[in-house]
Structures are given as structure tokens and as C-alpha cells.
Automatic annotation (TrEMBL):
GO terms for molecular function: mRNA binding; RNA cap binding. This is MIF4G-like type 2 domain-containing protein. Pfam families: MIF4G_like_2. PANTHER family: CAP BINDING PROTEIN (PTHR12412), NUCLEAR CAP-BINDING PROTEIN SUBUNIT 1 (PTHR12412:SF2). GO terms for biological process: mRNA export from nucleus; nuclear-transcribed mRNA catabolic process, nonsense-mediated decay. Residues 34-236 form the MIF4G-like type domain. GO terms for cellular component: nuclear cap binding complex; nucleus. It comes from the Eukaryota.
Length: 279
């Protein structure tokens, strides 16, 4: 219905521009007071969801994140909060957001370095992956409760208890698969960033003499490799259950030597120490 109305007024595919314009207007309206964001989203959520359905989730994520990115340099922490709320409203998919944050298409190496030096980018990815880890824990707890209920169910409750247990098991499988996808999408994006920046790490003679290039490399490389380690170490139970993903990743495309070494060492860690307190 909305598509028919919009196409009648604006023409084919103009709803993408409507989505962009709507989010730009929302962000302008709430810029002064953060609490207004929830009120605006509750007011327009049905329209936003229809526009996203018409646009497609991946393209819609890019449109919304592009609008947020315009504000990012001036209001980084506010933008992190906005994205977190949009994921809660299911307007944005966390996996698509991480893909966007690690996307370097069309960026110069200097722009990629600048992006990787933004603490808020890493904080948002850490937040989204942490939220996903909490979903895993909640789904497992729900499955445990369902199993206990099924074990003690009376004859009259047996069918319902069995159905709830199966639903809970499917919920665990679904959230684990989403977590697995998020982890390896993040690592794949980190690999592309690391490979791209490593190719330009030599810099000019002037930069080498001043130490500026080496200093910049230390910052982005520390963050890229460190975050890769953190993602694996904090999700050991998920990656251990799919240990073949390590080898598949290393076979799937070019992996720079230092990044490959990091992945191989993490695989060894997962295999040898499954009682890591961070898991």
C-alpha cells in the first residue's frame, strides 16, 4: 500500500530517497535532546519498517548509516547510542552494521586509517558483538528452563512442554548461527582492512623519517589484530563448535602473513584452552 502511494507520488524507486530524507529529518530533530530519539522512532517505526521492506535490508542499512556517518565526527558517542537503539528496534541488523563499519570501498588509504583510528567505531562493534553474546546466553538459559519443565511435566503438560523445548532448541541454533556469521564477517572485514593498509605501510620517505607512518601503523594494526583476538577469545564456545571455520577462512582468499599468524594462533588457543575465563 505504501509502495503504491509513494510510486504514485514520487515515481519508481523514490522510496529510497524518502527513507534517506526521513532519517535525516529524524536526526536533525533529535540532535539537541537524546531522549527525543525514542519518541521519534516510536512515532515513525511503522513507516520506517515499510520503507526498509521496500528498499531491502542491506541497502536500507547503508542509507541509514550514511546519514549517521555525516554526524559521526561531531557526535561519535551519540551515534553509537543511535545505532544501538536502531538495532533494538530491529531497524538495523547488527551484522550489516559491522559490515558497514569495516567497509572500505571507495576510501583512500588515508581515509581508512582515519576510520580505524576512531575509538567509537571499535566501541560500537564491541557493543554489538557483546549484545549478541548476551542473546546466546539468554537463548541457552531459556532452553535449559524448557528442558527442566519438560522433564517434570505432567501427562497433561507433556505435549506443550515438548513443543516449548523444541522451540527453545531452534532458538539456540538460530542465535548461534547469527553469532557465528557475525564473528566471521567481522574477521573477514578486519582482514580486508589489514591487507589494504599493509600494502601502503611503507609510506613516503618524509613520513618514514618523521616516524609518522610507523606511528599510524602501530595504532591501526594494534586495533585490527587486537580486536580480532578479542572477538575470538570472548566467543570461544561458538568458534570451538565450528573449528573448521578457521581453515575455511584461511582458504577463502588472500590473508596477509601477520593476520594469518594471528588466526592460526587463535585456532591453537581455542583447541588447547576451552576454559578461558573470558568465554
Amino acid at each position: 500500500e505504501l509502495k503504491a502511494r509513494l510510486m504514485g507520488i514520487y515515481g519508481d524507486d523514490q522510496y529510497e530517497q524518502i527513507l534517506r530524507g526521513l532519517f535525516a529529518a529524524i536526526l536533525r530533530a533529535v540532535q539537541a535532546i537524546l531522549s527525543h530519539f525514542d519518541a521519534m522512532m516510536e512515532r515513525y517505526i511503522s513507516v520506517v519498517n515499510e520503507l526498509i521492506a521496500l528498499t531491502g535490508a542491506e541497502k536500507a542499512t547503508r542509507i541509514v548509516m550514511d546519514e549517521l556517518w555525516r554526524l559521526w565526527p561531531a557526535l561519535p558517542l551519540r551515534c553509537v547510542t543511535y545505532v544501538d537503539k536502531l538495532c533494538t528496534y530491529q531497524v538495523l541488523n547488527p551484522i550489516d552494521v559491522i559490515n558497514y563499519l569495516l567497509s572500505i570501498d571507495g576510501l583512500s588509504k588515508e581515509e581508512v586509517v582515519d576510520k580505524m583510528e576512531m575509538s567509537s567505531v571499535w566501541e560500537l562493534m564491541r557493543l554489538l558483538i557483546g549484545r549478541q553474546r548476551s542473546r546466546v546466553q539468554s537463548a541457552k538459559a531459556e532452553a535449559s528452563n524448557a528442558a527442566r519443565f519438560a522433564a517434570s511435566a505432567t501427562e497433561a503438560e507433556a505435549d506443550m512442554a515438548s513443543e516449548k523445548l523444541e522451540e527453545a532448541k531452534l532458538g539456540v541454533e538460530s542465535v548461534l548461527e547469527a553469532t557465528r556469521k557475525m564473528i566471521w564477517n567481522a574477521i573477514g572485514g578486519l582482514n580486508v582492512v589489514h591487507t589494504t593498509l599493509s600494502e601502503g605501510a611503507e609510506g613516503s620517505m618524509e613520513e618514514a623519517e618523521s616516524g609518522a607512518q610507523e606511528k599510524k601503523k602501530a595504532v591501526w594494526e594494534w586495533r585490527v589484530l587486537g580486536f580480532c583476538k578479542e572477538v575470538i577469545r570472548r566467543n570461544t564456545s561458538v568458534v570451538e563448535a565450528n573449528i573448521g571455520d578457521f581453515d575455511e577462512f584461511l582458504r577463502s582468499g588472500p590473508v596477509e602473513a601477520k593476520f594469518r599468524e594471528t588466526i592460526q594462533s587463535l585456532k591453537t588457543l581455542v583447541l588447547s584452552d576451552l576454559t578461558d575465563p573470558l568465554t
